[in-house]
Protein 1
Amino acid sequence: MRLKIIVSGIVQGVGFRPFIYRTAVKNRLKGYVRNRGDSCVEIVVDGGDEDIKRFLRDLIEKKPPLARIYEVITTPIESTGENYEDFKIYRSSDEAELSGSVIPPDIAICDECLMEMRDPSNPRYDYFFITCVNCGPRYTIIEDVPYDRENTTMRDFQMCGFCKSEYMDPINRRFHAQTVACPRCGPRAYLLDANGGIVECRDPIREAGRLISEGCIIAVKGYGGFHIAASTLLDEPLKRLRAAKHRRQKPFAIMARSLEAVKSFAKVSSWEEKVLTSYERPIVLLEKGENYYLSELISPGLHNVGVMLPYTGLHYMLFDWVKDPAFVMTSANPPNQPIIKDDDEALRKLRGLVDYFLMHNRRIAHRCDDSVLRLHGYKPVFIRRSRGYAPEPIRLRLKARSSALGLGGEKNNTACLVVGDKAFLSQHIGDVENLETLVFLESASKRLMRLTNSNVDVVACDLHPKFATTMLASRLSEEYGCRVLQVQHHYAHTAALLAEHGLNEIIAICCDGYGYGLDGGAWGGEIIFGSLNPLEFKRLGHLEEQPLLGGDMATRYPIRVAAGILYKRVDIEEWLMENSINLPHGLREAQLILSKLKRGDVRIKTTSCGRVLDAASAILGVCYERTYEGEPAMKLESAAINGRNVIELEPQIRGTTLETTNIIVSLFEGRKVYSRRDLAYSIHYYLARGLAKLAVDLAIEYGVKSIGFTGGVACNQIITDIMRSFIEESGLNFFVHEAVPPGDGGLSFGQAIAAAFSQD
Ligand SMILES: [Zn+2]
Ligand SMILES: [Zn+2]
Ligand SMILES: [Zn+2]
């Protein structure tokens, strides 16, 4: 019998052809295997019926660990024509007929490679970019499909005889590993000084580690871009870094030398340990340990710290000459710009900021930031889904009617392509406020289409008329001759939750900072009904509207929000004047705020949950200025850890609105009586209980069994836990995001889902 087999999924760059080769030979089959231009693998086998049956079973059951098989299409073919003498790996073909396969994400160095790197008798001893068929960069080095060396940035390096012999050897684990390299033929590392001059040293990587330990700031080129590395024990370099990056408070991620080192300064649950050591190697937000001894400048005012483990040989080697438990490893990017990936760009943009550059001479085809997540118990919550995960698709329970591209909103953006029953989410793109990021968004979108061999029927974007992404959507729709669908922000969050769990309908509690409402208002604390038909989406309830004094100024300085709410019930003059030192223009500004309130001159109002948390944060003296997205609310959560509900205010629901004025006033009045921790906890409790109650009431009224929680506030564990227990006690199901970020990093997914399933 002779059979043609097409395998779709993640089957290129994961050792699939070598595996097929070995399996075919084992089963005495002749024929060939090859990669195709649509990221699929094509196989022809010729042999006995029983042998072919066993081959097909092995193909599914014994596939390589990183491979994902979506579909196996078999077609019997005539045994005439070409005669196969044995089984071969053929040259790849450009043929592309199927959509929906993709190449894998970057994979952390595997244990076997790490062992070889540490073995003085191994030819790759000390080689910082040691990889094999099971590990190494993929997504960040691929310029085109099929995944062959000449389509990657490894094509700049000619394999030496030794590497070639392993590459050609069917029983070697580097058989057809496209990233194979060694000290003789592969990428080299070198150290440059602040002016880009070469620093002569025998061991540039370990020398860089020593310099970091001593207090230098070093730009380190990795797989998907540049990091900025610094000591975690010394304050001086961190002060310097914060001043130069204009980043006063935003937490820095750190890379620890080992799991044991992590445990010396942070609490690590068994679930967190599993994620930290996974081959995706994300940054995990961990609670600081009792004896936390790293610099307070790493994550000021927060109870947690973002930690990752090394994921390349280079990272491991950085720690070899030093005793430091960890180094700061923050993405190198100018404010609101994508992570830096090119050497000349790094030298230009980081000049004056870093003392040295640790470079290597392999080009980065596509940038990719580190992923960030935290665990609520055993459930992962993505803050950012990027390296290690992108572009692996999220599988949907249903097949979409049309293929759709979602472009996200404005902050923390990603792109998402929905094709059939898969959603391909791009790497982290960032805040699309300037040209560089917008260009990155467009290229990442087109790359997803190219890698998956897909076209789009509809481009989805936000409802906000002035977002750059809205304009990009209309331009792309013209380019592709397809339609545009504008999806309301909180509808998109809700659609994301529906799709992720394969639900038909849901009542979603959707809480974040800001989303353009159907009425043009500033929404952000919403109860939304959603179903698979986007036309049925409906806003059922929301938080009380509160004044946003000065619009964006209020978002930046939460005292303004607090003043607007408090003014309705209490005399705030004394408090406001006392706190005027926390306003950029001091007393004068405080007086201006007061006179505006007296005149009733407040035009902008918001139902945002984030703004209520911000107001509480300012009243309790936790945070007076938002220097990064979500800062006042994040610090409020940190302040509330282990707190109690002392206010005991029952949720005040009027109609379908949860009131927020009284709880804010209660916090204000409770300041003299209760601890900051208990008050911080009380506002969490009130909002969580109140929103959950409102959602349960509405779910019963509408006969819906499932309630979900989405939006950026769903990263907050205290609120999520309280909601969960109340909703589950009510006999309803509670859903949160596990595969995509609840914040705006998951927005493009929801938009694309709404568009792909729309009836039009
Ligand atoms: Zn390996
Ligand atoms: Zn070599
Ligand atoms: Zn949002």
Note: The chain has a mean pLDDT of 96.
Protein 2
Amino acid sequence: MKRQIATAVCCIVLGSAALGVLASSTLAIAQQKPAKACLESWRANRAANEANGLTQKAYMAQCRSGGASAASATPGASRGAGKDRPVYLTVKDLMQSIIDPSADALWNAVQTIADNEGLHEIMPKSQEDWADVRHAAVRLIEGSNLLMIPGREAAPAGDKSEAEGVELDPPQITVLIRRNRQSFNGFAKALQDLGVEALRATEAKDPMQIIDIGGRMENVCEGCHQTFWYPIEKHASAGN
Ligand code: HEC
């Protein structure tokens, strides 16, 4: 408690740059996990880890650091996310705050709803409706760039998979992303390209295109999730 107060006082004086450095170093200290807990978690997920090419050593390093220090030790981590562009939040945070709500805005913009009174076609009509879709496209385009910045953890320290055995645990996802950066960025780039298409569709005010883009976008979301979030399912269905 005392420590936190001291930190707060120091950072008000030193300004926001110091806050970033301090916040990340306190984070690293707070996230040190006992080896025993990590070892147990490794054992519990051993088959899935090995299927994904994760060695015990890599898993332990990732798990013990809670991700933070291992990520900052990654060569190249500073290329996109250095002192001037600190990475504060995780892939999961980007999904919850930017990617998912923006995709929903796009998907919900053009749809057919069935109720007791029949079918209702929903589509953007006013200038404002189209502006909303445009804003969602902008968030998808630039949110994809945020996904491509290296050194980002999968999820906040301590978060666990909500479907053990189906989804990987966040430290596993972090390692998987780091090892397959190109593939991860490929999915992010595909999402970005669709965002650009959606932006153009809002300029043309073309609802049919929004539907088409929405369908292809679903495949990109699912492709990245199956590769990095729940690849165990993929292995199982591929008969491995
Ligand atoms: C480049 C890869 C990638 C793309 C593209 C992607 N996601 Fe994700 N998403 C992830 C990863 C990795 C996780 C798991 C994060 C975790 O829980 O550790 C995730 C998790 C999520 C979650 C769960 C968040 C939570 O509360 O646990 C939602 C919702 C989500 N994504 C929605 C979407 C939607 C919608 C799209 C497409 C418009 C999309 N994602 C595209 C990588 C991606």
Note: Residues 33-237 form one domain.
